[in-house]
Specification:
Largest sheet: 8 strands, mixed, barrel
CATH superfamily of the largest domain: Glycosidases
CATH architecture of the largest domain: Alpha-Beta Barrel
Number of strands: 11
Shape: elongated
Radius of gyration: 25 Å
Strand content: 15-25%
């Protein structure tokens, strides 16, 4: 019997090696998949709802009490972050800018850590002191709804003590890359909706930041009809024919009071405080 097995192996050595190699590859691939999936913090509905209740209780006293009306007219603005360094807001005020979108924070590209923008507090305090209308944006990389809610709560707790009249924006650009590798578009859409709905629950106007590629291939625009849209496209003859509320039309603008380039924007709605 042993001789028969030995002869069989010798006669079929190459096919056996190929089969064993294939089996080994399958095993290694499966193990790699399990390791890969273990890096995702997947949560069931009950766990997300539990987390939602926890942060809702924590954030229950946060609400934007400003009485804001939306006026249909073009206003000119910039968006800023720590990349712009130290800004002279007195000069920006006199430059003709109508509003500023300020980055408050971001989640890392490679892990789940969230950070405050190092210039956020300075930027918003200065903008408020010079009475320049302010909106907020957060660069998110959430891979599930729990992380999206975590991001929204984080933003609320950063901005609650300041005057914010323009929208609070969810800026998600990392489709199927780095920590979002393998996260499908349906999940990304649901994450953005979670973020925006939580923001609006607390009295702020929600807005989605996007561009032509993301709108065409990733975002389901019909899901965001109740939210504002901030569209980035840096050419004069833009090809997107849908409706948007703010246009980021250049990333090489020059504004007095800022060293270097800054993004330029047009808003087609002015968000104005109603004096009571």
């Amino acid at each position: 019997m042993k001789d028969k097995i030995k002869n069989f192996i010798l006669k079929n050595k190459i096919p056996i090696i190929i089969i064993l190699s294939i089996v080994l590859i399958i095993i290694i691939t499966f193990i790699s998949y399990l390791i890969f999936m273990s890096n995702f913090k997947t949560y069931d509905v009950d766990e997300v709802n539990k987390f939602y209740k926890e942060i809702s209780e924590k954030d229950k006293d946060i609400y934007n009490s400003l009485n804001i009306k939306e006026v249909k007219k073009k206003t000119l603005g910039i968006d800023i972050s720590s990349w712009q360094g130290d800004i002279n807001f007195a000069k920006v005020k006199n430059s003709g800018i109508d509003f500023i979108m300020i980055r408050c924070g971001f989640r890392n590209l490679s892990n789940d850590e969230i950070h405050e923008d190092s210039k956020f507090k300075y930027n918003i305090k200065e903008a408020n002191s010079y009475e320049i209308p302010v909106g907020i944006y957060f660069y998110g990389t959430a891979i599930n709804e729990k992380e999206a809610l975590e991001e929204a709560s984080y933003v609320l707790n950063l901005i609650k003590d300041y005057d914010v009249t323009y929208p609070v924006v969810y800026d998600f650009e990392l489709f199927n890359e780095k920590r979002t590798k393998g996260v499908d578009d349906e999940t990304i859409n649901n994450n953005a909706l979670r973020f925006l709905s939580y923001i609006e629950k607390h009295g702020y106007k929600g807005m989605l930041y996007t561009n032509y590629t993301a709108l065409t291939y990733h975002w389901k625009s019909e899901l965001f009809n109740s939210y504002k849209l901030w569209y980035a496209h840096y050419v004069d003859n833009y090809s997107y024919e849908g409706v948007y509320d703010m246009w980021q039309y250049a990333n090489n603008g020059r504004i007095d009071g800022i060293v270097g380039n800054v993004d330029l924007n047009e808003s087609y709605i002015s968000y104005e405080i109603i004096d009571e």
